[in-house]
Each structure stands twice: as structure tokens, then as C-alpha cells.
Amino acid sequence: MKYISTRGLKEEVPASEAILNGLAPDGGLYIPTQIPYYDIKNKRFLNNTYQELAFDIMAPFLADFTEIELKSCIAQAYDEKFTNELIAPVKKVGNDYYLELFHGPTLAFKDMALSILPYLMTTSLKKQKVKEDIVILTATSGDTGKAAMAGFANVPRTKIIVFYPKEGVSKIQERQMLTQEGANTFVVGINGNFDQAQTTVKQMFNDSELKDQLKKNKQQFSSANSINIGRLIPQIVYYFYAYQQLVLSKEIELGEVINVSVPTGNFGNILAGYYAKEMGLPISQLICASNKNNVLTEFFKTGHYDKNREFYVTNSPSMDILISSNLERLLSLITERDPSRLNEMMLDLAHKGEYSLAAEEKQQLKDFYSGFATEEEIALIVKQVFDKENYVIDPHTAVAKKVADDYLKTNVSDLKTIIVSTASPYKFPAVFLGEAGLANEVEKLSELTGLAIPNSVMELATLPLRHDRVVDVSVMKNTVLSLLNS
Ligand SMILES: *Cc1c(COP(=O)(O)O)cnc(C)c1O
């Protein structure tokens, strides 16, 4: 199994090289040359722990990793830093099944992949006999930045620089980032939004002046964003794991078809679900749930992608995105990996901000249902789920719940639905409380719900602020140049 670029570069590279590069040299994303099959009826599936299943699912994708290497990465990633021993437990709440992906150190699902990525990367450095150190450049809508820094803090031979939209993240998210320890971590607020951060970061990967500077310093760039296959592959695991839990708890029979509803931003999480389906997991519909930035809702309904629209900062900020990078990987699959067609669409996106699918191409999207939730609907769902079930969900998860309910209103289906729960409610307490800006919102949330405050939130109050840079988008590159030499 090797990796090729979506944009047509002929060279096939092994997983370790794709992980180190992040983005392919032609600006495309790496995709696996084939998607392996995983038989859920194999004898081990139902007995596997999270770690064992992670090995079975990831091994074929990481064909150049030895068994010992991969098992060691997995063991170091999925350990006690997850506060739930199942790592990714499924909770039955009413008729819904919530796959809780927020029990990692930073309380969002990004931990599922970013706790293992640093180990995959340092193993790749050794395998590829790379002499340069790694500089991770990352744009974050709030959760990736913290999770990536937590993963890479003090990892030898790495440095990490994170850009986040200064006015576009929750108070807790910002405090988590600004208190980050580790001499190799740097956080920079920008006067701009996530899309601007992500676009500028992508440009920097291919900037020759920066590359020369890196070479002089014996460094090379890589990415911790979900454009890196080292992010995507670990995310496939929990779809299988959730399914296993439903079988073990006798909610479904082995082989029974289910739906999944995923709160979507950069299209990484749901793409991992699509890969799981392609690998053989019996998923019928992948429900792509957006907030008011509903560019994907329109795309799946009409085949027309149009980012020329107002950008909203919402109460589910990790999904405030108009350019969903990982969609490129899906487009590559549905255009039968025809790079010329893909380049056409990506050029249209870059120059006009839009592109359209042909009718046959649109036909290939039938596995996806799309919908969105407004901020008022999100707040209402959070309240309703708590009032009815005494279960607290965060605003991102509420988006997935709302759109899953919409699906059932318009489609007759008796399939069970997994709602992917991507953040702890403690990361976004203002939505539950209904009033932003409360000084003691964490205590208030705990008081009203009886839900224990996670330690990682408690300690935020006393940790010193260690980062204070804020820059304009136009000087992001200069900031990187000066940080490279620090
Ligand atoms: C990143 C994130 C999302 C969106 O995930 P994508 O993989 O970017 O689609 C949803 N919810 C939360 C809490 C997140 O941190």
C-alpha cells in the first residue's frame, strides 16, 4: 500500500513519507492507492480492545511500519491520558447512540488522532533516515491546535507553530492553547478566520523562501491538520470500535446496517467514516451535519460547491469553515481518481470560489445525507436533550443530533444511528448556560448538570499564560521566519 497525490503527481510514496510530507509536493492530498477490506466477521473483531483493533485497522494502511513499531505507537498514544478506559465509549441515550470521542487530554475528538500522530511522525523520521527536524505548521479552528501541541510538546526533533483565529474560538479553547507548555510550542492568534489561516499555511508549505530557510536550519515542514494521512487513518478505527460496542451490547446484530451522523468542518472525521464504509463496515448513510456555515449542505444536495458566502462565527466554532480540505479526497474517489478533472475543480475553487459536479459525479454522493443547524436550533437541542435524558452534549454534537433527527423526518428508516460526539460540554459551556461571558461558567455548568469537571479544565484557572502573539494574516509568513530561528 502506497500513497499518491490527488492532483496527478505520478510518484507513489510509502506511508512514512506521506506522513512526513503532510501535503503532496504538487499541492494535492495524499490518498491510499487502494482501500483495504476488513472483515467484521473475523474471529478477533468482537474481542479486540481499542488498541488491538487500532492495530488491525491501521496496519494495512501503514504497510511500511513494522508490527513492533506500530504497536509501540498505539500503546503510547492510547494510554491513561484517556480518562475512559474504553477510549471511545458509546452511550445509549433514549433511542440515540453517542460515540464519545472527547475523553482525551484536550477534551475534543482531535485527541483521537493527535495523540498518535507525534509517534507516527518520529517513527517515520527514523524509517526515512531523515536528518532534518520537523516543524509542524498548523491552522486551527480551536481544537486541533491544542491537541496537536499537547501531542508534540517536548517531543525531540519537533517544533510546532499553531495559528488560530483570535476572535473565533471559545474562551476555554483559547485558554487551553495560551497555557500550553513545552519549549517547542508556539501559538499565534491571527486577525482573521480559520479559512485564511488554513489557506496561508498551505501556501507556506510550498513557499521557496521558507523552504530555503528551513534547509539552512536542517528542518522540514509537516502538517498536523487533517490533510495529513497520519490524522485520517487513526480516525477510521473508532467507527469500527463503535460498531463492535453496539454488537456486544446486543443493540445490533453483527452485519446489521447502521447510519452515522457526524458534525463536520474540514471533512476529516466523516471522511474517515466513509473509508470505514469502503473497508466493509455496514454503514448506509453518512449524515454530514453542518452549522450555519452550510456550504457542505448545499454541496451534497445540489452538487454545487460555493464558498462565496458570508462567514459566520458561531457557537460551534470548530466547524466554522467554508473550505473543507478533505473533500478533495472524496472528489478524487468519485471522479475515479482522474487528476485532470480534479485539478479543474480545484482551480475553479481557487479562482472563482466555486465548482460544480456533473450529474454522474453527483450520483456518486448518494451515501451522504446533508443538513445543518442554526445557532438557535443548537441551543434548543442541547437544552432538550438534557431536559429529556439528563445527558449533556456540546454544541458540535448537537448539530449532529439535529441533522440526524431531520433525516428521520424525511426518510423512513429503522436503522440505528450513531451520533458522533466530538467535544466535552465543558469546552463550550456558554451554549448550555445560554449566556455568554459568565465568569464562572464552568462551575455553573457543573452545578446545573451534576457532571464532574474534568481535571484538564480545573487546572486552567491556575496555569500561567505562556503565549501572547497576535498578528495580521499578511505577516504570518514573517512570524514563521522569526520563530524558525528562535
Ligand atoms: C474539528 C472538530 C469538528 C469537525 O471535524 P472535521 O474533521 O474538521 O470535519 C467537529 N467538532 C469538534 C468539536 C471539532 O473539534
TrEMBL record:
Any single Gene Ontology cellular-component annotation: cytoplasm
Name of this chain's protein: Threonine synthase
NCBIfam families reported in the protein's UniProt record: thrC
Tryptophan synthase beta chain-like PALP domain boundaries: 97-415
Ranges of residues in domain Threonine synthase N-terminal: 2-78
Record's function text: Catalyzes the gamma-elimination of phosphate from L-phosphohomoserine and the beta-addition of water to produce L-threonine.
Pathway: Amino-acid biosynthesis; L-threonine biosynthesis; L-threonine from L-aspartate: step 5/5
Enzyme Commission number, as recorded: 4.2.3.1
An example Gene Ontology molecular-function term: pyridoxal phosphate binding
Entries under Pfam families matching the protein: PALP, Thr_synth_N
Species of provenance: Vagococcus fluvialis bH819
Record-stated family: Belongs to the threonine synthase family.
Any GO BP: threonine biosynthetic process
Enzyme class: lyase
Reaction(s) catalysed by this chain's protein: O-phospho-L-homoserine + H2O = L-threonine + phosphate
Alphabetical UniProt keywords: Amino-acid biosynthesis, Lyase, Pyridoxal phosphate, Threonine biosynthesis
Modified residues (N6-(pyridoxal phosphate)lysine): 110
Cofactors named for this entry: pyridoxal 5'-phosphate
SUPFAM superfamilies to which the protein is assigned, alphabetical: Tryptophan synthase beta subunit-like PLP-dependent enzymes
